[in-house]
Amino acid sequence: MKVVAAMSGGVDSAVAAARAVEAGHEVVGVHLALSRMPGTLRTGARGCCTIEDSMDAQRAANIIGIPYYVWDFSERFKLDVVEDFIDEYAAGRTPNPCMRCNERIKFSALLEKALALGFDAVATGHYADVRRDADGNAELHRAATWAKDQSYVLGVLTADQLEHSLFPLGSTPSKAEVRAEAAARGFSVANKPDSHDICFIPDGNTRGWLAEKVGAEQGDILDRSGKVLGTHQGALAFTIGQRKGLSIGYPSDDGMPRFVLEVQPKTNTVVVGPKEALDLSELAGTKFSWAGLGPVESGISTVGEDGAILPFECEVQIRAHADPVAAVVSVEDGEMVIRPVEPINGVSPGQTAVVYVGTRVLGQCTIARTVSAVPVPA
After folding, report:
1. Per-residue pLDDT reduced to its tens digit, 266-290
2. Is residue 1 a known part of a binding site?
3. Choice among 98, 101, 314, 365 that is catalytic
4. Cα diameter, the chain
5. In terms of CB atoms within 10 Å, which of 118, 231, 277, 377 comes out highest?
6. Is 101 one of the annotated active-site residues of the chain?
7. 120 near 28, Cβ under 8 Å?
8. Is 149 annotated as contributing to ligand binding?
9. Which pLDDT tens digit goes with each residue over 86-128?
10. Hey, what domains does the chain have and what are their CATH numbers?
């Protein structure tokens, strides 16, 4: 196959590109330029989009012996990832920019361009696995090693995108093995630290960056009944589950700590309450998709008389490194509805819930609403 290897400048993508060549594919290395003003040194930009990263990718491509190009997706990235991030926070939601980047850049914009140029697939350094069912349909599965599994951030991929995706590291037992392989191949990135933080917020100060982009105004802190308890200097400075920094000045009636339950930027209010109110009995989202065949086509569920997808047992994961929890999922009135077997906490609208059946990623939704397991007092 003719393959575009997305080379970020890190060790994983370099080894993935080399393995794609050894698998017999005709490979071209591509680095995505996602910023018009990238940081030049990693000390000032802790993500994966610096000029230094581009140079690291080129050195690896030269060693592998493949053509190397830089494709400018900065405008698309700005619109589809950065501005989406700002808009979501301004609406009171907590977005995952890595999910949006995979969905709209790496496996949409990049894949679309690759296919248009006559390539067959895109290879990345993600730790995940594409397998085939008995009929040859592509399925997304967890990687061999739980510690590095990245299937969560790939949960947004569609059946067609999976057909054109290669993950050469999916069966690798450990990151240490990838680093050892990189060193043996002579890659300078063999011991390069993993990227972290949000790549377009180089200093890691997300709150300060958002305050500059969205602004901060004084507003009310409310209890669950709507009573004003105090004031804040900007709703976006608060996160669901936060305990410290509320500065209300007096204890709750029962003397127990208060926690942030909701952030409502449209009214510039923050709702606080007891810790147990963070426990959720239901999550739901209208923006959902299936990674390959859906639950009905896969024989996991059936359709009811009203056309809804009937409840089926699964596991749901809310964050990239969170443990999955048992849940029951259905599709009702255009929503993916997730009901965890035990209440789940620390969840915010805007986050992505990825649904698993065994090791398989079945699909995902962007959480639009939640239901507390603890009713609001009358």
Report:
1. 788 999 999 999 999 999 999 999 9
2. no
3. 101
4. 69
5. 277
6. yes
7. no
8. no
9. 888 887 788 888 888 888 898 889 999 999 999 999 999 999 9
10. 2-125+168-185 (3.40.50.620), 216-277 (2.30.30.280), 279-372 (2.40.30.10)
